[in-house]
Write a structure and sequence with these properties.
This protein is α/β, with parallel strands linked by helices and about 325 residues long. The chain is about 45% helix and about 15% strand. The protein has one domain: Rossmann fold. The chain is globular, with a radius of gyration of 19 Å. The mean pLDDT is about 95. Bound molecules: NADPH dihydro-nicotinamide-adenine-dinucleotide phosphate (NDP) and ligand LLCNDLXC. Keywords: Endoplasmic reticulum, Glycoprotein, Lipid biosynthesis, Lipid metabolism, Membrane, NAD, NADP, Oxidoreductase, Steroid biosynthesis, Transmembrane, Transmembrane helix.
């Protein structure tokens, strides 16, 4: 039976590389590119069809940062497909990033240097804003829109006798200390990205608790540091080009510098081939690249409090009720 796979944020970076890899792996796939920008979505679809001329590639308009768009897109998905095997929740933003250069140079000469390059801990802040639904934009895009999408698509992913998978593109930047259960949307802090990614790690655990019995299995991955539009938004592209040789060198010390979208998509691709029952719900699956350029996936335990994950789940359900009422 052909597998139905939906990828959010599929028109560039890691999402597009994943699509390319999935089509190479399985020519029978029915792939749905869920993109907010139709023109960029069309360009991605054409590029994929150039290298896989017989592939089934559909396009879906979806802005995960908008409640109305998520609800409309979910209706469209339900009309087009009768099940979804893989839901890759990959779209993500990091608006107005700011690097703390002092902290960077201090970190360079500390024992924490490897961890700093792997996680950006203490280096990065962002300035977030409210979207038209009155939600914090980073929370709405990276977490809540995807949560709402899963809820809307439950008839397609929670089916008796059938297993479906949800895979979150999280980050090594996800940190417990950046997240507050009292401030889910991170209205008051300056690390909305880290907070939203930590929340996705917790949500994945809660989804497994609530939905495994209905055939839905959730996993989280970290793609490592990848050169994409997102990272080009942190520092100008000429800077990245200048330091690229240094980055290849750093890869010898930290295998988290995957650098290319193809390498970054390693764990996403690896999960596609795994039996969900064999996966650890408390693990984050990391895409890693060795100094010699070999890609591999490694499971690392997440620092997650199960009780807090449950509270997050209930709070998201409550927020869902509120936004549905408004709609
Ligand atoms: N690059 C890195 O080093 C790392 C990236 N990640 C995560 O990987 C994921 C992919 O990012 P990456 O490939 O790096 O960056 P890109 O910017 O290349 O890709 C992000 C994708 O998400 C889409 N997107 C953004 N906002 C929305 C929205 N509201 N609705 C629908 N689609 C949206 C973008 O579409 P559009 O073209 O319209 O903007 C784009 O296709 C993100 O979740 C990111 O947080 C995690 C760790 C490290
Ligand atoms: C010499 C050199 C490589 C300098 C770059 C320093 C920083 C700009 C990077 C060091 C660690 C990086 C990192 C990210 C962005 C760029 C750095 C801060 C991410 C936050 C990008 C998005 C993620 O989800 C995780 C990444 C962790 C590492």
């Amino acid at each position: 039976m052909e597998k139905v796979v939906l990828v959010t944020g599929a028109n560039s970076g890691i999402g597009l590389a994943l699509c390319e890899r999935l089509l190479t792996e399985d020519g029978q796939l029915r792939l749905c590119l869920a993109c907010r920008n139709t023109q960029r979505g069309e360009a991605a679809r054409s590029a994929l069809l150039t290298s896989h001329s017989n592939a089934h590639v559909d396009l879906l308009h979806l802005d995960v940062g908008s409640v109305q768009s998520v609800l409309a897109a979910a209706q469209e998905v339900k009309a087009r497909y009768n099940r979804i095997d893989f839901l890759y929740l990959n779209a993500g933003i990091m608006p107005n990033p700011h690097i703390d250069l002092k902290a960077f140079f201090r970190g360079l000469f500390s024992r924490n240097v490897i961890n700093m390059f792997a996680t950006a801990e203490g280096l990065l802040t962002q300035q977030d804003q409210l979207n038209s639904d009155g939600l914090q934009e980073v929370f709405a895009t990276n977490l809540f829109g995807h949560f709402l999408l899963i809820r809307e698509l439950e008839p397609l992913v929670c089916r008796a006798g059938h297993t479906s998978r949800v895979v979150w593109t999280s980050s090594s930047n996800a940190r417990r200390s950046a997240f507050s259960i009292e401030d889910l949307q991170h209205r008051d802090g300056s690390e909305p990205y880290s907070s939203s990614k930590y929340a996705s790690d917790m949500l994945s655990l809660a989804l497994n608790r609530h939905k495994n019995s209905q055939g839905l299995f959730s996993s989280v991955i970290c793609p490592g540091l990848v050169m994409t539009n997102l990272t080009y938004g942190i520092l100008p592209s000429f800077f990245w080009t200048l330091i690229l040789p240094i980055m290849w060198l750093i890869r010898i010390f930290t295998n988290t510098f995957t650098l290319t979208p193809h390498n970054g998509a390693e764990a996403l691709h690896w999960l596609f081939g795994q039996n969900p029952e064999s996966l650890d719900p408390r693990a984050k699956y990391h895409s890693l690249t060795s100094g010699l350029g070999t890609n591999y996936t490694q499971a690392r335990q997440m620092d997650i409090d199960e009780e807090m994950a449950e509270v997050l789940y209930s709070k998201l359900l409550e927020l869902e009720r509120v936004v549905r009422k408004k709609e």
